[in-house]
Amino acid sequence: MPRRVSVTVEGFELAQVFTIARGSKREAVVVVAEISEAGRSGRGECVPYARYDESVESVRAQIEAAREAVEAGASREDIQRFMPAGAARNAVDCALWDLEAKLAGRAVAGLAGIGDLQALETAYTISLAAPDEMAVATLAVADRTLLKVKVGGGDGRDAERIRAVRAASPVARLILDANEGWTPGDIRANMLVAAEVRAALVEQPLPAGADAVLAGIPHPVPICADESLHQTSDLAALADRYDCVNVKLDKTGGLTEALVLVREARQLGFGVMVGCMVSSSLAMAPAMLIAQGADFVDLDGPLLMKRDRPDGLIYAGSTVSPPSSALWG
Known about the structure:
Low-confidence stretches: none
Number of helices: 10
Number of domains: 2
Radius of gyration: 19 Å
Largest sheet: 8 strands, parallel
């Protein structure tokens, strides 16, 4: 029976407005690729991201352009060659992993040589807002052990934001994520505040392409690359600037490349964070594989939505459990 590829677009209303340094959103819009063969189907979900010049239309077009080759039997290794890294390849790659596992009657983790998956501690994101609003949002989740705090407001109030969150949650580990929102003029002062509150990590403080400054300033708190890192070939240029890298499947173009990237990052001495876009459990599921053993895990996308898809991941307190085969893998 020949393969068939289908592409759908879905929207998930968020529980509340989600704001980062680049703007706000009320809905998570995702693209899902489904590949069927011999009575089995595999799915992969991705998030088109305007920061990387992606749109729903462009991602759908990339998947449609790959349809003929995938339906003719193109493998995961094949699509690495003719699809660029990014959201579209992520959806197709993860769908192929899921399909391969279902056809083989095995788990993707086993096929990838990872073994049994464990429940993990995941961050929960505090959206960018006024300091007092962020303190209130933090108090509502004060029992969580790992918080990701969006900063980079560009209004000179990030020190207030950071201190307000720490006052509301004295014990939790904090990841401060500026989404490229700091500048060479304010990064030193902000880094000192990060150290003052005992932050565990500062994520992408400066714009990608303008982060050479990081090589010449102290790192009182480890600094993590996000927008500056997409795939394995980017790692070498980051060695003198960053202490850690944030691996996201929508950047790497899927699980296949992400597995290589994590292995190479470890060999080069980087810490590893595994993150996500705002999306459903279907996008989180393959990320759970590369998150095994990561230093930081940020897979809270479904927690930010009013509803998740059926058979979604199970979140309990600060932990997230591995996916069921009914969802993916």
